Amino acid sequence: MAGVNIEIRENGPLRVTGPITITDKDGKEYTIPEGQWASLCRCGGSGNKPFCDSAHRDAGFEAESSAH
């Protein structure tokens, strides 16, 4: 079984490769199967939070993209 991986995309979202389950404040679950991925918003501009909708591109989002 593959492990969960979180990739920091350059000036973009966090790409999380499953298997994972994301649970919202109302208890609704989003399941990402093993080997598939979801991109999570890092810029705050997505209209589909917590998921990325590429709003960072139009916003000119820039952020550190390396783990420290």
Characterization of the model:
- 7% of the residues lie in helices and 29% in strands.
- It is mainly beta and 68 residues long.
- It has one domain: Ribosomal Protein L9, domain 1 (3-Layer(aba) Sandwich), CATH 3.40.5.
- The strands form two sheets. Strands 1-2-5 form a three-stranded antiparallel β-sheet, with no helix packed on it. The chain has a two-stranded antiparallel ribbon with strand order 3-4.
- The longest helix is centred in the last third of the chain and has 5 residues.
- The radius of gyration is 13 Å and the shape is globular.
- The termini are far apart.
> Can you count the beta strands?
5
Arithmetic mean pLDDT? 93
> How many domains in all?
1
Poorly predicted runs = none
Architecture per CATH nomenclature, i.e. the level-2 architecture: 3-Layer(aba) Sandwich
Q: What kind of sheet is the major sheet?
A: 3 strands, antiparallel
Spatial separation of the terminal alpha carbons: 27 Å
Q: What would the CATH topology be?
A: Ribosomal Protein L9, domain 1
Number of helices: 1
| SS class | mainly beta
Strand proportion: 25-35%
Oligomer: single chain
CATH first level: Alpha Beta
Q: What would a concise description of this structure say?
A:
The protein is mainly beta and 68 residues long. The protein has one helix and five strands; from the N terminus they run E-E-E-E-E-H.
